[in-house]
Design brief:
With 245 residues, the chain is of the alpha+beta class. It has helices at residues 19-25, 40-51, 70-89, 101-116, 138-148, 150-158, 160-185, 200-207, 236-239; strands spanning 4-6, 62-67, 123-129, 189-190, 214-215, 219-222, 231-233. Strands 2, 3, 4, 5 and 6 form a 5-stranded antiparallel β-sheet that branches. The longest helix is centred in the C-terminal third of the chain and has 26 residues, at 160-185. This is Nitroreductase family protein.
């Protein structure tokens, strides 16, 4: 797997490159945060950006838990440590194929720094979503089966759990990406993780999140200790398939 530092190119026709491209090209996962507080009005702007994201069926059933109280953060820190330690002992034990070992070592060091200083995190955002129960009647189910055909209908029955999870995620993650872009645009550091799902019940209990509400990420936010810079990603020519695979 080849990676390259990505910076926006100057358009061939000399037109001005939209600032958004520079924002995306330098939006690293920033895990080393200063302990300085983030003003509530800036956090509200991040949530506003998230709310502007698309939501399936325009249902807009998202909720956002924003933690800034140091006492609550200190309560969450042991949960974060357990999740990070579990990750580093398994999936995170090895560098991804094609990633330089030294670069991966730096990433792990940043993860460990964030783990060890989590109680000092100025803000944490937990995106939540509660998908409504589907409204189905006999005639609709009949037409559904007719449209898909017997083989696809049976297959949908087997993958319904995955389909439902993706449907919920598709209503949440566009907003999360908006939040991350907004943070970068405002000079704030942020990174998205889902490690909290290993102990989701404990996180929900600590934060008073209703049992029937699903959580989709834990996003630490703060002022960066380091500098933003170009991301390293696979070249477009390695990942694009035109018209067919």
């Amino acid at each position: 797997m080849n990676t390259q530092a990505i910076l926006p190119e100057t358009p061939a026709d000399g037109a001005t490159e939209p600032a958004l491209f520079a924002t995306m090209a330098t939006m690293r996962a920033m895990r080393r945060l200063k302990s300085d507080p983030v003003p509530d009005e800036l956090l509200d702007r991040l949530i506003q950006a998230a709310v502007w994201g698309p939501s399936g069926g325009n249902m807009q059933r998202y909720e956002y838990v924003v933690v800034t109280d140091p006492a609550v953060m200190a309560e969450l820190a042991p949960l974060w440590k357990r999740c990070v330690d579990a990750y580093l002992a398994t999936t995170g034990k090895y560098a991804p194929a094609g990633m330089d070992e030294a670069a991966y070592g730096r990433m792990v060091a940043a993860i460990e720094y964030q783990r060890d200083h989590f109680a000092e995190t100025p803000a944490l955002v937990i995106p939540c979503y509660r998908f409504p129960e589907p409204r189905m009647e006999e005639e609709g189910v009949r037409k559904y089966a007719e449209a898909l055909g017997p083989e696809a209908t049976a297959r949908m029955g087997r993958i319904q759990e995955r389909f439902s999870a993706l449907a919920e995620g598709s209503c949440v993650y566009p907003g999360v990406q908006n939040l991350l872009l907004a943070a970068r645009g405002l000079g704030l550091a942020a990174n998205i993780t889902i490690w909290h799902l290993m102990l989701e019940e404990e996180w929900k209990a600590a934060l008073g999140i209703p049992e029937d509400m699903h959580t989709f990420a834990a996003i630490p936010v703060g002022w960066p200790r380091g500098n933003f810079g170009p991301v390293r990603r696979r070249p477009v020519e390695e990942v694009v398939h035109r018209n067919r695979w």
